[in-house]
């Protein structure tokens, strides 16, 4: 049966709906609806009316009160400060290390490229929880060769200090995520047309110069995407400090915004938790915007 | 987001134009052995840094509590890996096995279903014409950037209203829709399934479902494998959602289970230290297996998502 053109088109609507329905259904129920519900919750507070034991808790509309409380709460704001410092330490170091390793892998001198890629990527498949547990032991004085080594070269390390805690979590994150970005940067480097590099070489640039002034700027796009995803992940920091909390006295239950949200949820301050989540999302959106805008500005001098 | 798909190319065009010299001169001096040593030396040092902590875990999983404290972290004591494994799998009537099974269901079955959903939706976005297509796809792209922080707490409350907090479905279902998967599905479909081939099957009179199942899907198998691998590692590593949702030990995924053991360390170190160490090591094994058996695909997937 030969179908007419409009028949085909109509059939495509139906089949397109059929193919995309499972995704949009699940996306609607488990992503969009929670966002909407979170918005509603953030404007309400749970109150048990009456003095008796049998009173059903009721959601009372409180306007922007939850937001006002979150924005004046020093513990919540302190969490943003922690995460800000953490991002300032972690992201430049991670991106620089990943870039250097990717450039080295891309150089003509590198051997066993496949092996190095696999080995560098390995920590990325280790669950964050387990990675944090491994490093928790590696941060423990007496147990850890790392701490002993640092001590012996005159760099005392303690999880107990603010700088130590941020450094410890940053090192953990660098360990987990550098390999992923090495792979991405390396693939981007491989996509650079060989003529461009040959041209620079013919012009008399040395290997290091070609790597730094020709290759690195050309994978700017990949770097921006990597920074974007890293910022989004880093600002939601939860698992690693949550695990290190026992050993690091400066890490408390509201050390990062996500930990604060978890603590509020556990104490049934749901409106507060919802408001704090939305504030975190807005900050994330703003940060993403700044990253993409900043990079675009830089790209067109 | 369209610039994602062309990330490397405009950069390439912006590069200095190719050399105009009519003939290329010989490459300059032979690379000194020193450069080779430095390049590979740094790579080796970085590799040691990534691999040594895992080595430490492997070694620690062979020790009992006393040896863990009395011997160096990278020093072997009497090897008790077998004893530790027996202890791990028999403790609490095989609780760890239940956790492994749960993780396989949450992460394994979940990733398979999720990958299929993503491939189908991505394929539809690539191959079918329907009204408002790019607007719907825009919604998918916005979804990629939604942080889990904003959905997790309301999800927990919704589940709690429906009495589903302490249930398998409360953890399994929320992970199925993956906007990033749909995006990758579309990229892969454009790359792997030629339009002409589909035209040919349409001319032959095959229905859309049949041409997807018999013609397109076999070509999209690498996409499916990549998305499965991403979903599997993501699901296996998921911690925040199960931590909020579940209180019944028998429903825990392995990550949450190990966490509760870790929390019990202070109570009885001699029992729980080997459990935590060996449990953590065994929990990584399925990931390593999935990773190495599907390694043909993961790189293509990573780079398709971020570079191409």
From TrEMBL, chain A:
<keyword id="KW-0813">Transport</keyword>
<dbReference type="InterPro" id="IPR035906">
    <property type="entry name" value="MetI-like_sf"/>
</dbReference>
<keyword id="KW-0472">Membrane</keyword>
<dbReference type="GO" id="GO:0005886">
    <property type="term" value="C:plasma membrane"/>
</dbReference>
<comment type="similarity">
    <text>Belongs to the binding-protein-dependent transport system permease family.</text>
</comment>
<feature type="transmembrane region" description="Helical">
    <location>
        <begin position="157"/>
        <end position="175"/>
    </location>
</feature>
<feature type="transmembrane region" description="Helical">
    <location>
        <begin position="219"/>
        <end position="238"/>
    </location>
</feature>
<feature type="transmembrane region" description="Helical">
    <location>
        <begin position="118"/>
        <end position="137"/>
    </location>
</feature>
<keyword id="KW-1003">Cell membrane</keyword>
<dbReference type="Pfam" id="PF00528">
    <property type="entry name" value="BPD_transp_1"/>
</dbReference>
<feature type="transmembrane region" description="Helical">
    <location>
        <begin position="268"/>
        <end position="291"/>
    </location>
</feature>
<feature type="transmembrane region" description="Helical">
    <location>
        <begin position="12"/>
        <end position="37"/>
    </location>
</feature>
<feature type="domain" description="ABC transmembrane type-1">
    <location>
        <begin position="80"/>
        <end position="291"/>
    </location>
</feature>
<feature type="transmembrane region" description="Helical">
    <location>
        <begin position="83"/>
        <end position="106"/>
    </location>
</feature>
<keyword id="KW-0812">Transmembrane</keyword>
<dbReference type="InterPro" id="IPR000515">
    <property type="entry name" value="MetI-like"/>
</dbReference>
<dbReference type="InterPro" id="IPR050809">
    <property type="entry name" value="UgpAE/MalFG_permease"/>
</dbReference>
<protein>
    <submittedName>
        <fullName>Sugar ABC transporter permease</fullName>
    </submittedName>
</protein>
<keyword id="KW-1133">Transmembrane helix</keyword>
<dbReference type="GO" id="GO:0055085">
    <property type="term" value="P:transmembrane transport"/>
</dbReference>
Automatic annotation (TrEMBL), chain B:
<comment type="similarity">
    <text>Belongs to the binding-protein-dependent transport system permease family.</text>
</comment>
<dbReference type="InterPro" id="IPR000515">
    <property type="entry name" value="MetI-like"/>
</dbReference>
<dbReference type="InterPro" id="IPR035906">
    <property type="entry name" value="MetI-like_sf"/>
</dbReference>
<feature type="transmembrane region" description="Helical">
    <location>
        <begin position="171"/>
        <end position="194"/>
    </location>
</feature>
<feature type="transmembrane region" description="Helical">
    <location>
        <begin position="104"/>
        <end position="125"/>
    </location>
</feature>
<feature type="transmembrane region" description="Helical">
    <location>
        <begin position="215"/>
        <end position="236"/>
    </location>
</feature>
<keyword id="KW-1133">Transmembrane helix</keyword>
<feature type="compositionally biased region" description="Low complexity">
    <location>
        <begin position="8"/>
        <end position="21"/>
    </location>
</feature>
<feature type="transmembrane region" description="Helical">
    <location>
        <begin position="271"/>
        <end position="292"/>
    </location>
</feature>
<feature type="transmembrane region" description="Helical">
    <location>
        <begin position="137"/>
        <end position="159"/>
    </location>
</feature>
<feature type="region of interest" description="Disordered">
    <location>
        <begin position="1"/>
        <end position="27"/>
    </location>
</feature>
<keyword id="KW-0812">Transmembrane</keyword>
<dbReference type="GO" id="GO:0005886">
    <property type="term" value="C:plasma membrane"/>
</dbReference>
<keyword id="KW-0472">Membrane</keyword>
<feature type="domain" description="ABC transmembrane type-1">
    <location>
        <begin position="100"/>
        <end position="294"/>
    </location>
</feature>
<dbReference type="Pfam" id="PF00528">
    <property type="entry name" value="BPD_transp_1"/>
</dbReference>
<feature type="transmembrane region" description="Helical">
    <location>
        <begin position="37"/>
        <end position="59"/>
    </location>
</feature>
<keyword id="KW-0813">Transport</keyword>
<keyword id="KW-1003">Cell membrane</keyword>
<dbReference type="GO" id="GO:0055085">
    <property type="term" value="P:transmembrane transport"/>
</dbReference>
<protein>
    <submittedName>
        <fullName>Sugar ABC transporter permease</fullName>
    </submittedName>
</protein>
């Amino acid at each position: 049966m030969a179908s007419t053109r409009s028949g085909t088109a109509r059939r495509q609507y139906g089949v397109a709906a059929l193919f995309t329905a499972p995704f949009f259904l699940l996306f609607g129920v488990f992503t969009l609806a929670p966002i909407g519900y979170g918005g509603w919750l953030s404007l309400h507070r749970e109150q048990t009316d009456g003095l008796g034991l049998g009173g059903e808790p009721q959601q009372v509309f409180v306007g922007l009160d939850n937001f006002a409380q979150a924005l004046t709460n020093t513990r919540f704001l302190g969490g943003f400060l922690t995460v800000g410092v953490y991002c300032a330490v972690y992201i430049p170091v991670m991106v620089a290390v990943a870039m250097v390793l990717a450039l080295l892998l891309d150089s003509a001198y590198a051997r066993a490229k496949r092996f190095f890629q696999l080995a560098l990527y390995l920590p990325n498949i280790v669950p964050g929880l387990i990675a944090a547990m491994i490093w928790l032991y590696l941060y423990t004085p007496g147990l850890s060769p790392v701490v002993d080594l640092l001590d012996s070269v005159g760099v005392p390390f303690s999880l107990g200090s603010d700088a130590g805690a941020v450094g410890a979590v940053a090192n953990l994150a660098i360990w987990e995520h550098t390999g992923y970005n090495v792979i991405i940067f390396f693939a981007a480097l491989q996509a650079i047309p060989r003529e461009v590099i040959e041209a620079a070489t013919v012009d008399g640039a040395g290997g290091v110069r070609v790597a730094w002034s020709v290759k690195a700027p050309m994978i700017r796009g990949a770097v921006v995407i990597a920074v974007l995803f890293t910022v989004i992940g880093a600002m939601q920091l939860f698992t690693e400090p949550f695990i290190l909390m026992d050993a690091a006295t400066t890490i408390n239950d509201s050390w990062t915004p996500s930990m604060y949200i978890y603590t509020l949820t556990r104490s049934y301050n749901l409106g507060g938790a919802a408001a704090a989540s939305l504030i975190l999302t807005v900050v994330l959106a703003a940060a993403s915007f700044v990253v993409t805008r900043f990079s675009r500005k830089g790209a067109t001098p | 987001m369209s610039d994602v798909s062309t990330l490397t190319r405009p950069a390439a065009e912006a590069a200095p134009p190719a050399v105009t010299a009519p003939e290329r001169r010989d490459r300059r001096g032979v690379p000194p052995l020193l450069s080779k040593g430095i390049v590979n030396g740094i790579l080796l040092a970085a590799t040691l840094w990534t691999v040594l902590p895992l080595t430490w875990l492997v070694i620690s999983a062979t020790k009992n509590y006393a040896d863990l404290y009395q011997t160096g972290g990278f020093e072997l004591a009497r090897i008790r890996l077998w004893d530790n494994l027996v202890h791990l799998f028999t403790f609490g009537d095989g609780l760890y096995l239940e956790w492994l099974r749960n993780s396989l269901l949450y992460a394994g079955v979940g990733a398979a279903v999720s990958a299929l959903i993503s491939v189908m939706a991505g394929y539809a976005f690539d191959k079918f014409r329907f009204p408002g297509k790019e607007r719907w796809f825009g919604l998918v792209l916005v979804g990629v950037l939604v942080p889990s922080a904003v959905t997790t707490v309301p999800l927990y409350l919704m589940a709690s209203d429906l009495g589903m907090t302490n249930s398998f479905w409360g953890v399994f279902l929320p992970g199925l829709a993956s906007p990033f998967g749909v995006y990758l599905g579309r990229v892969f479909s454009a790359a792997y399934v030629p339009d002409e081939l589909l035209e040919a099957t349409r001319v032959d009179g095959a229905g859309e479902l049949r041409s997807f199942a018999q013609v397109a899907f076999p070509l999209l198998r690498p996409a499916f494998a990549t998305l499965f691998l991403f979903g599997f590692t993501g699901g296996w590593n998921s911690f925040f959602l199960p931590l909020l949702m579940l209180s019944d030990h028998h429903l825990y995924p392995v990550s949450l289970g190990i966490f509760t053991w870790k929390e019990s360390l202070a109570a009885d170190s001699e029992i729980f230290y080997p459990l935590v160490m060996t449990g953590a090591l065994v929990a990584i094994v399925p990931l390593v297996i999935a990773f190495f058996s599907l390694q043909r695909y993961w790189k293509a997937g990573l780079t398709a998502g971020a570079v191409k």
